[in-house]
Amino acid sequence: MSPYEVPPQSIAGTRQTALQALLPRFDVTGNGFLPDRVPLSRLPDPYYAPWESLIQSLASHIQDNTVRDHINKLPVLALDRLHTEDERRRAYLILTFFAHGYIWGGAEPADVLPPPVTVPLLQISDILGLPPTATFASFNLWNFTSSHPSADFTDVDSLDALHTFTGTQDESWFYMVSVAIEAQGAYIIPILLQGLDTLQSLLSTTPSGDESSPDDFIPEPQPPKDPTWKAHQAAILCATKSLVEISTCIAKMGHILDKMHAKCDPHTFYHRIRPFLAGSKNMAAAGLPLGVFYDEGPSAEGQTRKGQYRQLRGGSNGQSSLIQFLDIILGVEHSSSGNSQPESDMTELKGPSEKTTSFHQEVRSYMPRRHREFLEYVMEHGGGGFRGVISQVLLHGPNMTSDGDETAGLADLIRAFKTATKALAEFRNKHLQLVTRYIIIPSRQQSQVAVVAGHNGQAMAGYGGAGAKGIVNLATASTSLMANGDKNQKDRIRHAGEAEGEVGDVTTVDCEESHNTARTRKGSSHQNPELTGTGGTALLPFLKQSRDETLLAGDLMTVTD
Ligand code: HEM
């Protein structure tokens, strides 16, 4: 099916023109949030040869512990020879790989980034609307090549990462699984927009003639104009079909997720790859209490350095616009800030009387600007997603109860919606299992060794460097147990046991069961010390809450009553 092919017949007439105009406006391509063709693999202007030559040998310089020397020797290059969006994206990718290679590629993390990285990185990030750190865009969206004859990016076996920190197949595979998932989800985007729009039109009186305006794509709900019975039916059928299709699509995304194990070894991931994904936020245990100072060179007087400390999340699949799009279009709401250090994060994110920013909201600022704007647009015009619109149709839509066929149509719609939320929750369950295998289990094994060796939680940052010689094992640092200062080793062993218990819960939990417990889980505070994610999230409670909030969205009664 072509990416813009949509289910037949909108009640307000066909609005495909508007839809087709809408997506490119937000840089959503036939491959979804991936570019429409493979990203640039080299900057054409020879001026950038110093960058290109270093990025090609980044992994080996990290391996022999000389990466910082090489980066320090780079000239501070200007951006005025980057002429296209593809070139700007590649510059961002290169510079963020340099930044993370520099910070984490040594015996201790570097808390100062030098001007050859910071000066162009700050500029290019500003242009692209991204933070000056590695993101899902650097590692995934703009970091792949494909050998597929028809450039089908859903085929993970034919994808390869352009760049890695470790030079391992495991790291490439880790990135490429996400690329294939993004590609797999692409076709559903216009289908869902069309399905939702069609359903919304049951509530609206769109004047004819306005229909092709992109700004009118999803109009505000209006009093019903009582369209014909047939048109109602067609609208409901269209919305139902799009919801059935999303379940199929998410299942296919899940099959790709299942392939992670094929070529990415959990220990290689945990000990060698994950350290380089880490950010500078919540990294006190790793040796970055203030974050990283972005040194922009000497000040005008020449006595001090220009620049500032920055605390930024690490690159994470949690920054995928596709998954957030699915949440928004279905009407899933997330509230967890995912913070393991509430006080420090709260002062950064909120004023005295403001609500804490949720993880999902916060990481939108780690998405390319136009993708972020797309999500905001769908939120603004989407009427609360399918959950909100179905509830409105049930409450205020045209009277359909008089006809048996329409009642059955509505029942199908509701069933398809619930199945879709379950499919997304099931995807999150699979993801939880992955996190268990790739983070929880290796960290538990390591924490036990650390305790036996007499280390405390903080000192674990120096334990067991794997891979490159002399490199701090930052996987340990970035997954530091969030133990209180007075927690003793016994507590930590107990925690490791609890984590194991959580693992059992994760792998056996069933969506239905978890649905029933969703309300009780939601908002519950987890007092136990927890592992943190690459972005500094308290891992398991956060991921479970995200899953449970997905299931909760399927409960339409909370909207209608
Ligand atoms: C070995 C594979 C993976 C591991 C170890 C992993 C780990 C994590 C961690 C630690 C987080 C917490 C947030 C953070 O720290 O930034 C997270 C969040 C997330 N990850 Fe993954 N991840 C993996 C693969 C994937 C893939 C392939 C996807 C597909 C898009 C994905 C999607 C997400 C999403 C959407 C979140 C945000 C939480 C949510 O919305 O449920 N992850 N992941």
Describe the structure.
The protein has 561 residues and is mostly helical. It has a domain of 212 residues. The protein is 53% helix and 4% strand. It has a three-stranded mixed beta sheet. Helix 5 crosses helix 6, helix 9 packs antiparallel against helix 10 and helix 10 packs parallel to helix 18. The N terminus is likely disordered. It binds protoporphyrin IX containing FE. Protoporphyrin IX containing FE (HEM) binds next to helix 8, helix 18 and helix 22. Belongs to the indoleamine 2,3-dioxygenase family. It comes from Rhypophila decipiens. Keywords: Heme, Iron, Metal-binding. This is Indoleamine 2,3-dioxygenase. One of its GO terms (molecular function) is heme binding.
Produce a short descriptive summary.
The chain has 561 residues and is mainly alpha-helical. The protein is built from 23 helices and five strands. The chain has a domain at 28-186 and 263-315.
Which sequence of SSEs, written as H and E, runs from N to C? HHHHHEHHEEHHHHHEEHHHHHHHHHHH
Number of strands: 5
Low-confidence stretches: 1-14, 205-216, 340-353, 452-530
**Shape call:** globular
Structural class, from helix and strand content?
A: mainly alpha
Strand order of the largest sheet: 1-4-5
How much is the average pLDDT?
Answer: 79
The rounded Rg comes to 24 Å
State the helicity in percent bands: 40-55%
InterPro entries: Indolamine_dOase (IPR000898), Trp/Indoleamine_2_3_dOase-like (IPR037217)
Family: Belongs to the indoleamine 2,3-dioxygenase family.
Protein name: Indoleamine 2,3-dioxygenase
GO molecular function, one term: indoleamine 2,3-dioxygenase activity
